[in-house]
Specification:
This protein has six helices and no strands. The protein has one domain. The radius of gyration is 18 Å and the shape is elongated. The termini are far apart. The chain is mostly helical. Helices cover 75% and strands 0% of the residues.
């Protein structure tokens, strides 16, 4: 449930930011402000919650995913979430390519987790953290939204353009 709550808070905060801002509201600005809140909240805070769960409450989280308790791999997943969280928080101060790298890292990780959960469901594991809102919203919906917004942001800001000087003569 927390992925949806964090996403709603991010949307409300970005909307409030735009309403209180004296700058002109353009589509480009809407995308940027949305990412400014979505990335730190859904990736930064969301992955921090996942880290705490996997590392400090491992047996409880394992049971809710359908994993065996005291699984050593769970610590590694937790540390991956910690790395994702740190990157998400850094996006408060760093934009441009850092936003793209962070959303790609998180998006690939979560979409891969979604695939793993679908495989587990097909095998009969319908544990609470494998299904429902965590799967469809947290592991699929929200990552697709921030990946899409990041793509729009990068296109708008021409991050995919070559910065090389094509007029220079080649040696």
């Amino acid at each position: 449930m927390y992925p949806l709550i964090l996403f709603i808070i991010a949307i409300l905060a970005s909307t409030l930011h735009l309403l209180l801002s004296k700058k002109k509201t353009t589509f480009r600005r809407i995308v940027e402000i949305a990412l400014l809140y979505i990335i730190p909240l859904t990736i930064g805070v969301g992955a921090l919650i996942a880290f705490v769960g996997h590392v400090f409450f491992g047996p409880m989280v394992a049971a809710q995913i359908g994993w065996p308790a005291h699984n050593p791999f769970q610590f590694e997943v937790g540390i991956g979430n910690l790395a994702m969280s740190v990157a998400g928080f850094f996006c408060i101060w760093q934009r441009r390519g850092f936003w793209m790298a962070t959303t790609l890292f998180s998006g690939v990780f979560l979409l891969g987790a979604a695939y793993g959960h679908l495989v587990q469901i097909a095998g009969g594991d319908t544990s609470p953290l494998n299904t429902g809102i965590f799967l469809y919203v947290g592991d699929v919906g929200i990552p697709l939204i921030y990946l899409g917004l990041t793509l729009i942001y990068c296109i708008q800001n021409r991050f995919f353009m070559c910065k090389c000087d094509s007029k220079k003569s080649r040696s």
